[in-house]
């Protein structure tokens, strides 16, 4: 039975997750104030950005029922997303159960690209059609682009589409190839541990004071992206270990320049152009036919 992919729920869940988790991120100071020390500066900052100021706080400080509903729904939606996501034909095969979370992160990243593009289109329309540019669209698209850039690393690692050089790898027996795989995975893990060790203090400080961008819109780009980088690099290291385990007993593959050629795309182009090169997509067809007509 052919596996279905691209069903509406596969795209609806990531979209809802983006908005739900986006609410959690935007109202991040509420959770810091509820569970951390009282900070008057953070209180004033949260009062300025609170989307639902009229709702009563669940705890003693700031977080309301919508904030905590979004906080609870985010991991639930993530689990549902990992269970419902399916491999698309162009994605890496096989996809193991442990890979589903990385594939769902990829779907979330795709939805973020759509959201970012929509924000940019909205800004262009307001700026040039109505001469009413916004103060937030440019920085919001920059903020979302940072999330896309960082989160895509997890998906790229799971898809094995990161940059690799195979000249020496393909020239040695499978035993040495496995040795190379172990060494490269160890290097990734060591890099992740070093980055977390060196950047944890700064990221934690920026997060706890909810450091912002210092502009009119003032999004918390430093507070969120610094923390996200450390979280994602740990996921990349874990995914690299999973790749090593999953690929351990696979048959070795020789890599050639033909790996970058999409056979299905070539067949579609052949069908469109035609065997004789005079298909519907042939830009020379009209000139060739007109030349033959003049000669006859």
**β-strand number:** 0
Sequence of secondary-structure elements:
HHHHHHHHHH
Oligomer: single chain
Largest sheet: none
Helix content: 55-70%
Query: Based on CA inertia axes, which overall geometry fits?
Result: globular
Helix count from the secondary structure assignment: 10
Report the average pLDDT across residues. Answer: 86
Global Rg = 25 Å
How far is the first residue's CA from the last residue's CA?
56 Å
| Strand fraction | under 5%
- Name the poorly predicted regions: none
Structural class: mainly alpha
Q: Can you walk me through this structure?
A:
With 296 residues, the chain is mainly α. It has 10 helices and no strands. Helix 4 (65-84) crosses helix 5. The radius of gyration is 25 Å and the shape is globular. It starts with 7 loop residues before the first helix and ends with a helix. The mean pLDDT is 86.
List keywords for this structure.
single chain; 296 residues; mainly alpha; 0% strand; globular
Give a short overview.
The chain is an all-alpha fold and 296 residues long. It has helices at residues 8-26, 28-35, 40-49, 65-84, 100-129, 137-158, 174-208, 221-246, 263-273, 285-295.
